[in-house]
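This week, study the protein below.
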Amino acid sequence: MVLPLALFIIPALCFSQDFGFGFGFDEDEGGSGSTLPFSFSFGGEVEAGLKLFIEDFKGGEKAEPFAPLDILSAKINFNIAGKSADVFLGLNLSYAAFAELWDGGPEPAQTPLIIDEAWVRGYLGPVNIEAGLIKLTWGRMFSPGPLDVVNPLDYTDLTKITDTKAMKIARPMVHVSWMLGDFSKLETLFIPNFQGHRFAQEGRWVPQEFSGMAASAGEGILDRALENYPPYAAFIQTMFPYVQAGFSGFSMELPDTSSLEYFQTGMRFTTTTGPADWGVQYFYGNYFRPSFSIGGVDSFLADLITGQPPYPYYLVSPYTGNSDLLDPKIEYSRYHQFGLDYAQVLAGFNLRAEIAAHITEDTAGDNGAVKNPFLAWALGFDRDILGVNVNIQCNESIRLLDDKVLKNPAMDCEGGADITSTRFFLQISKQFFRDRLECKVVSIFDVEDTDCYIIPSVSWTINDFRAEASAGIFAGNENGELGQYWENNFVKLGLKYSF
């Protein structure tokens, strides 16, 4: 549907009488100079970029063949604006977007990568109604905070992590906003299905939590076997590699979330009181990251032990268990969110804060397939200091009912994880030569994992052209969420034209 529409619109633009940012229909048949009640415009950007991964020069395991088509990409936006309605279509024309279509398209619940946004918006006095594939930001933080829960993010390429807008995945929704005076607004939305964060399923950006799922399951079941049957410890450790082979095929088969069973909805109110901007919101939806656990472990182990041949074991083949008794589950935990946000300029600092409580279905804390209820907060500020812009933000989540969580990662989706998850964002930037030259450093640091991701960059802008050079450095704990990509350190060169 998208490609035929684009192929129809683009030739129409080329044959228009007035090719440019807007198209005016200034003359009717009588030449009276009357105009139509709408305007048509388009814009976008074309980029040529080259990403060089350091490990590729060494021929490491993650080295990938060079893809020439990945050098060029473009974004094209079409907009029709009328007195009482707008129509918008934004397209991502990149190698990754087209490759998804060539591979058969996305899953039913997913938004195609080739569509950035596509919506219709109507203006009914103080009420705006929009419907379509929409990117929406809730909350006030510089980087995504706990209240920004409407759109999932695309983590298939972490070289783009500093561009939150580009990483957001548009979702089908109906969004209504109502202006209540000059400073207050009430919003509500409905999303008919669900899509989680998008992660790479193959290649250099596959997270360890997915690629190492079978190994993690095996280690968890082995630990449970040693805990339940210590007299059999020597035998269990000897034979368990054969047992693990029976369930080594565990794969990341995500649940189908395209039905109304996975609907999401929410409401948000924002206003200004004196010097402070603040808001409250409620959201009912699903956690963007999947939770993995295995049911039936104790039944599997009981069958495994009782089914062994009599001593001496080495004279016969040991029984490796009935893997059908294991019930691997991958779920997106459902929750209610209640949140507050605040922003104010104080002593020259632009302060921002958010806090939210998430109530999941596991209100007792003992359901290993579902995340426990948790609190989340974010605090940040930005300020210019001697011409240098400094932006700092801290995000943290705190798990509740932690004493009910099994420490075994195979039996509890939060087993082995820290009770808190704390991440700092730091951005420092300085502009020179009448803002044409910008030097910037972005750093992300995970406290519990003791790892980080540092992205220095320098860019030069002249009118509509922008040249940029950047790098990405992963460091710290090689098992951390960021440090696991230590082999993906890169240098990136790009030239962009905006129109």
Notes: The longest helix spans residues 213-228. The helical segments are 2-14, 95-102, 164-167, 208-211, 213-228, 233-245, 297-306. Residues 1-32 have pLDDT under 50 and may be disordered. The two ends are 25 Å apart (CA to CA).
